[in-house]
Amino acid sequence: MELALHTVSKIMGRTDVVNRGSLQKAFSAFKLELVKSDYTQPTEESKDVEVRSCANPKRDWGEAPDVSIFYNRSAELLQLRRWLLEERCRLVALLGIGGIGKSTLAVKLGLQVQSEFDVVVWRSLHSSPPVGDKLTSILQFSLWSARKEVLIPDSFDGKLSKLIECLSSNRCLIILDNAETILSSGGQTGLCRPGYEGYAQSIKTIAEVPHNSCVILTSTEKPREIGLLEGEATKVKSL
Ligand SMILES: Nc1ncnc2c1ncn2[C@@H]1O[C@H](COP(=O)(O)OP(=O)(O)O)[C@@H](O)[C@H]1O
Ligand SMILES: [Mg+2]
Questions:
Q1: Of 133, 132, 112, 137, which is closest to residue 122 (Cα–Cα)?
Q2: Distance from C-alpha of 40 to C-alpha of 190, rounded to nearest angstrom
Q3: Is the domain covering 47-238 a CATH 3.40.50.300 domain?
Q4: Where does ligand 1 bind, in terms of residues with CB under 6 Å?
Q5: Which ligand 1 atom minimizes the distance to the CA of 71?
Q6: What are the start and end residues of each CATH 3.40.50.300 domain in the chain?
Q7: Are 61 and 185 in contact (CB under 8 A)?
Q8: What ranges make up the beta strands (E) of 49-177?
Q9: Assessment of whether the complete model's pTM goes beyond 0.85
Q10: Confidence class for position 15, pLDDT limits 50, 70, 90
């Protein structure tokens, strides 16, 4: 049928992009007409997910910093590993002034514990992305790597419930770096900036609703929700 074997295996596997001509040839070999509902167009985002994740389909370290040079912090790493693996904390904040080593520690910890998780996602909030966009990006990767249908609701509430569903059915480690960018600048209140309240609601829900995953935040300022919920007996901690 004039198709290379690897193209046929891409079509049968449905994991890789092929051009429409190849699909048409494959369908006509089986005397089938190719119609729109038989295929989807690759989007820029889905291509991005595939390329960055092909090394390991379950881990997306995004733009996480390199930690090949790393000193000390063994007491902190031990404490954090205990919170994640033994106490199964749902929300952990790494707090401290800029440059103290929060992002580095978060990557080091993530690399040490990643084999205990089904999905690992690193995202920076550095450019203050709208909460909906960030939830979409996390869901796209998490659903895709959990081999679930990547159907993402349009509404914020829909996205948040989908995320909680995903955090319950899989053990995910989600690291959100630079969370201070979504907090109101200058103030010491830890309140979310106007327009970013969705993050506060997401943090609260992730902390309060039972699931099997962990979200780590790094921030120069403690988000208010964490201050209110953290404690000895809760699954919310800060370091
Ligand atoms: N434990 C460490 N060992 C070696 N270098 C470190 C360590 N922690 C941080 N650094 C270095 O210090 C700098 C600031 O660390 P970073 O993690 O970016 O801080 P933060 O996220 O708190 O702003 C980086 O260049 C990083 O490589
Ligand atoms: Mg940092």
A1: 137
A2: 43
A3: yes
A4: 69-73, 96, 98-104, 218
A5: 3
A6: 47-238
A7: no
A8: 59-60, 91-95, 119-124, 172-177
A9: no
A10: low
